[in-house]
Amino acid sequence: MKLTDINSKFSESKYIEPKFKKVENECRKNHIPIIDRDAAALLKLQLKLKQPQRILEIGTAHGFSTLLLAEASPETSKITAVELDSQRALKARENFAKYNYQKKIDLKLGDAFDVLMYLKNDYDFIFLDAAKGQYFYLFEYIMELLAPGGILIADNVLYKGMVLEKKEQRPKIRTMVKNLKKYLKIIMNHPELDSTIVTAGDGMAISRRKDINE
Length: 214
What we know:
Blueprint: H1 3-10, H2 21-29, H3 37-50, E1 54-58, H4 64-72, E2 78-83, H5 86-98, E3 105-109, H6 112-118, E4 123-128, H7 135-145, E5 146-155, H8 171-189, E6 193-198, E7 204-209
Helix pairs in contact: 3-4, 6-7, 7-8
Binding site for Mg(2+): 129, 155-156
GO molecular function, one term: O-methyltransferase activity
Organism: Halanaerobium congolense
């Protein structure tokens, strides 16, 4: 049983944030990838616990998860969102304005490798939801930006369970799965991180960078 099914037995609301129901439905209708509801619930909880001031999202699409980040984080927090596709970025900006979050969210259009290279802030919360085969290669850039005590959450790390399977996959899928396995191996064994993998959604990897004195 998924976390969503368990939550629905005890919750009156079927939506993580009812006010964003229209954005969620539009994304699903147009086949725009968005965070699963049980993964969104876990993301929201992590935000409430951490209370981050500087948030980085890598992979924004139409901005559904960005809106969740904005809603669940402190009013004083600032979000840097990165999106490669110009049409998706345009729609995301429309959604941010619609819900009056355009001042809280700074959306940067471009390839994540290029954008991350020039970011200067230390972020205390990073949500990674870009191309799955790139997680491993983005890791070193992310570590340059993740503050001590900061939280890194990567979505879809089990990719339909294929990361846990040994059977042969199509070449493109096989490469992506191999790279996801590399990402999980590096975060689980990195001396500066405490990490765990949970099955919410399509698998989420949650890492915390150790404080300097730990």
